[in-house]
Amino acid sequence: MYTVSCKNCGRQYESKANRNGVCPDCKKIMRSRNNTRYSAKTYDNVRIYVPKGYREELKQYAYDKGMSLNEFINKAIDLLVETLENESQKSD
Ligand SMILES: [Zn+2]
Q1: Which of 8, 22, 23, 62 has an alpha carbon within 20 to 30 A of 32's alpha carbon?
Q2: Are the beta carbons of 30 and 22 closer than 8 angstroms?
Q3: Which protein residues have a CB closer than 5 Å to ligand 1 (ion)?
Q4: How far is the CA of 42 from the centre of ligand 1 (A)?
Q5: Within this chain, do residues 25 and 51 fall inside the same structural domain, yes or no?
Q6: Range of the domain at 20
Q7: Please, what are the averages of pLDDT over each run of 10 residues along the chain (92 residues)?
Q8: What is the reported pLDDT for 91?
Q9: Would you state the pLDDT for residue 20?
Q10: Are residues 19 and 29 located together in one domain of the fold?
Q11: CA–CA dist 90, 30 (Å, integer)
Q12: Rama region for 86: left / alpha / beta (φ>0; ψ in -120 to 50; rest)
């Protein structure tokens, strides 16, 4: 192990590589910042309101089906759009 200084904050930290990189704390902060930037560039946010407690119920249901709550909601939206499209085609 080598003692090197962080390129970002200058703090000394232990590293396997004998060169200056970023310390574990800065690495965590930078990763989180990069994830936030990536998400902002890639996704739109939609805030929905549900009755108190229903969120946890849905989350548990989604997890039981092997999905995240986000995947579950996106799938529900896709299925509804598909259903409505099929219904409108039948009435044409
Ligand atoms: Zn640092």
Answers
A1: 62
A2: yes
A3: 6, 8-9, 23, 26
A4: 28
A5: no
A6: 1-45
A7: 93 89 95 96 96 98 98 98 95 74
A8: 78
A9: 78
A10: yes
A11: 52
A12: alpha
